[in-house]
Each structure stands twice: as C-alpha cells, then as structure tokens.
Design brief:
By secondary structure, the chain is an all-alpha fold. Helices cover 67% and strands 0% of the residues. It folds into two domains: 99 residues, no CATH class; 32 residues. The protein contains six helices and no strands. Helix 4 packs antiparallel against helix 5. The longest helix has 26 residues. The two termini are 29 Å apart. The relative contact order is 0.12.
Length: 132
C-alpha cells in the first residue's frame, strides 16, 4: 500500500516548497515516470526488507520488489489518464494514456478495486484465520 502512494510525496514537496512556481518543476515530475517510480519502488522494498529483518521477521525481498513495482506502476498509469504533465515513458515526452479514461472512470475504478480488495482480504482472513 505504501508503494501505491509514495510517489505522491513528490507533488506534495513541489507544492509545499513552491518548486513549480520558483523553478518550473512539474507537479508530477521524475518519480511519476516508470524509470523514477521504479527507483522509488526498489528503494522502498529494500527499506521494508531491512525493517522486517530488524524486527526478526523473514520476508521475501523478491516478493517485496514485485509488489512495490506493481503498486508504483499502477499509480503512474492511473495518474497518466488524468494529468497532462505526466510523462510515464521519460525521457520521451509522450503520454499515450492521457484522456483514455475520465476522472470519474478512474476514481470509480479505484473505489471498486478497493471494495473488492477489502472484501477479499476480509474473506480470506476470516476463512483461514478464524479467531477461537
């Protein structure tokens, strides 16, 4: 879940520090590209793996990397439908996703996916991990 929102730390900093007004930095910059997002995802996976190791728990770094990459890439694709300043295939300035779906459709998809995901999560946990 962290991987799905970590790239939005960039627009937060752009707005808070006024980087868009002072330096012309786009709201959705390098970390909203597949290259930049991948770097963030892989770094996040390493940090989480070290955190788990510090707690004495084992976790598959490979699974963490796959999960982090898929979360970041999904975020970039969904944002690419909505924002003109996103260049997912940087260094190319082309965004083939922009305008394919409306904001209503993208946010509707997010809501439905969240509800389905939570339902599945609860079903699995109640079925396979019932409390006594």
């Amino acid at each position: 879940m962290i991987a799905n929102v970590i790239v939005d730390f960039e627009p937060f900093l752009v707005l808070i520090l006024g980087l868009d007004l002072r330096y012309g930095y786009p709201l959705h910059g390098f970390f909203h590209t597949f290259i930049g997002g991948s770097l963030v995802a892989l770094a996040l996976a390493e940090v989480i793996a070290k955190f788990y190791k510090h707690l004495g728990k084992e976790i598959s770094v490979k699974k963490l990397k796959i999960t982090a990459l898929s979360g970041v890439w999904l975020h970039i694709v969904l944002d690419s439908f909505l924002y003109t300043d996103i260049k997912p295939f940087f260094p190319l300035s082309w965004n083939p996703f922009y305008g394919v779906f409306s904001a209503f459709e993208v946010y509707g998809f997010c809501i439905v996916a969240f509800l389905l995901g939570m339902s599945l999560y609860l079903l699995i946990n109640l079925k396979f991990h019932p409390k006594h």
